[in-house]
């Protein structure tokens, strides 16, 4: 406990870190306050009684409750994330975007501009759909539907752009990972209410407090398991040739390439969830086929058919996303240019094949474990956990929470170590987060 307070004191002593943490808290406070500002022409009392279940519940969690409250930040940063995914996929399929990805800083700036433009378009379309489907007619105080939708479409679009600006400011002026921190704060904001709901239901119903304690222990176990998956790496030794230039020696040291067990991050779950929403969408637009037994089973989040297909899609998307984000050929070329080689492996094509084989072997258990984490909320619901509380037992929300918290701790720890203070951990650095890669292509996948 003494070391904990000493660490907090050291953090406060570093002026740059203190300012960055203060800025981050200030920007996050602005976001949370704005999430309670209701759209113009909406009755706040009626809007706050809307239920958020299924897909709506998931979106509401990412938006910190703004979605169900009909807030000006109702869409949150989800349109920006969708635009980022589209631009990233265009970088694989379209030569122009592929070229931009290889142009360094100028290329990244152009890609960011394209992402912002696409965010405006996606937000505009999602705002219209949100206003038509999620804001009840009795909650509207503006009688003319066209005026109501026209006005609030611009308000929602401006709200999303403002949240995106806050995220960028947190990245520049705060402790980094601005968009991820905004999502994390939105998820954490739902946690106290979920705890209270589950405690009340258990205290006055089945299982009692013993069942609630068991659930908390299980939740801690799932969090620890998720940390192992997020932190897990396979280290490949790399030896660099020794060179003598003048009176100085270069190279001659051994480093390693840390290949992550879950290199795809949370993206496979997001892609798989997008496909699993199709049966529910089909049943809404085509009532004649909504009575189909298979369609009903796939639309039910607790059915074994839904979770089996969901798990298979996650495994497939993990392989797909790992293949497009980790490039063994580029890693082998970078090592060869820098005079590096894997002991016992020939440089060049043989090295690329070796790295590709290692990635394929570690991706299998990583994808299976990711699928297990994704379906744990459904399993928790089947054993009696309330749907709101079950969302924290796994899935996208838990992986985002774990990943963002670890990255934030790593940012703080790097500031401490840079100024010769002890790290956050008693035994040194946070394992798995601060290792310097020996070659390109091993950076963590952004949310």
From TrEMBL:
Point out the signal peptide segment: none
Keywords in alphabetical order, please. Answer: Cell membrane, Membrane, Protein transport, Translocation, Transmembrane, Transmembrane helix, Transport
Q: How does it assemble?
A: Component of the Sec protein translocase complex. Heterotrimer consisting of SecY, SecE and SecG subunits. The heterotrimers can form oligomers, although 1 heterotrimer is thought to be able to translocate proteins. Interacts with the ribosome. Interacts with SecDF, and other proteins may be involved. Interacts with SecA.
Recorded protein name is Protein translocase subunit SecY
Q: What is its main location?
A: membrane
Q: Which Gene3D superfamilies match?
A: SecY subunit domain (1.10.3370.10)
The UniProt function text for this chain reads: The central subunit of the protein translocation channel SecYEG. Consists of two halves formed by TMs 1-5 and 6-10. These two domains form a lateral gate at the front which open onto the bilayer between TMs 2 and 7, and are clamped together by SecE at the back. The channel is closed by both a pore ring composed of hydrophobic SecY resides and a short helix (helix 2A) on the extracellular side of the membrane which forms a plug. The plug probably moves laterally to allow the channel to open. The ring and the pore may move independently.
Protein family: Belongs to the SecY/SEC61-alpha family.
The answer, when asked if Transport is one of the entry's keywords, is yes
Q: Taxonomically, which superkingdom?
A: Bacteria
InterPro entries per the record?
SecY, SecY/SEC61-alpha, SecY_CS, SecY_dom_sf
Enumerate the subcellular locations listed in this protein's record, separating them with semicolons: Cell membrane; Membrane
High-level lineage: Bacteria, Pseudomonadati, Bacteroidota, Sphingobacteriia, Sphingobacteriales
What is one term from the GO cellular component aspect held by the record?
plasma membrane
| TM region positions | 21-47, 67-93, 114-131, 146-166, 178-197, 209-230, 257-278, 308-327, 362-382
Q: Which organism is it from?
A: Mucilaginibacter rubeus
- What's a single GO BP term from this record? protein targeting
Annotated membrane topology is: Multi-pass membrane protein
The primary gene name is secY
């Amino acid at each position: 406990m003494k070391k904990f307070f000493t660490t907090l004191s050291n953090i406060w002593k570093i002026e740059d870190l203190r300012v960055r943490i203060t800025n981050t808290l200030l920007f996050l406070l602005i976001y949370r306050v704005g999430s309670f500002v209701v759209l113009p022409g909406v009755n706040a009392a009626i809007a706050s009684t809307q239920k958020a279940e299924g897909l709506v519940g998931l979106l509401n969690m990412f938006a910190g409750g703004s979605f169900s409250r009909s807030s000006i930040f109702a869409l949150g940063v989800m349109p920006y994330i969708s635009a980022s995914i589209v631009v990233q996929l265009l970088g694989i399929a379209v030569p122009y975007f592929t070229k931009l990805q290889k142009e360094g800083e100028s290329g990244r700036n152009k890609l960011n501009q394209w992402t912002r433009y696409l965010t405006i378009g996606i937000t505009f379309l999602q705002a219209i759909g949100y206003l038509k489907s999620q804001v009840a007619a009795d909650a509207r105080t503006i009688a003319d539907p066209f005026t109501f939708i026209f006005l609030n479409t611009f308000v929602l679009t401006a709200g999303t752009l403002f949240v995106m600006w806050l995220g960028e400011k947190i990245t520049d002026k705060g402790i980094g990972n601005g968009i991820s921190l905004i999502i994390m704060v939105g998820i954490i904001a739902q946690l106290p209410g979920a705890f209270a709901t589950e405690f009340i239901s258990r205290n006055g119903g089945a299982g009692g407090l013993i069942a609630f304690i068991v659930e908390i222990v299980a939740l801690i176990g799932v969090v620890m398991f998720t940390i192992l998956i997020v932190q897990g790496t396979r280290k490949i030794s790399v030896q660099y040739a020794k060179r003598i230039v003048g009176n100085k020696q270069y190279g001659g040291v051994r480093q390693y390439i840390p290949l992550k067990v879950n290199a795809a991050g949370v993206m496979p779950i997001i892609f798989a969830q997008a496909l699993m929403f199709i049966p529910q969408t089909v049943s809404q637009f085509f009532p004649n086929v909504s009575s189909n037994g298979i369609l009903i089973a796939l639309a039910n989040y607790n059915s074994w058919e839904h979770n089996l297909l969901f798990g298979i899609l996650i495994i497939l998307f993990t392989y797909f996303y790992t293949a497009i984000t980790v490039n063994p050929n580029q890693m082998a070329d970078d090592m060869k240019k820098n005079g590096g080689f894997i002991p016992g492996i020939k440089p060049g094509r043989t090295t690329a094949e070796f790295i590709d084989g290692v990635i394929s072997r570690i991706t299998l258990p990583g994808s299976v474990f990711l699928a297990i984490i994704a379906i744990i909320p459904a399993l928790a619901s089947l054993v009696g956990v309330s749907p709101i509380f079950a969302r924290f037992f796994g899935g996208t929300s838990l992986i985002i929470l774990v990943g963002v918290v670890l990255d934030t701790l790593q940012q703080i720890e790097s500031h401490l170590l840079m100024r010769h203070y002890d790290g956050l951990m008693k035994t040194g650095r946070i394992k798995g987060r601060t290792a310097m890669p020996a070659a390109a292509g091993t950076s963590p996948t952004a949310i």
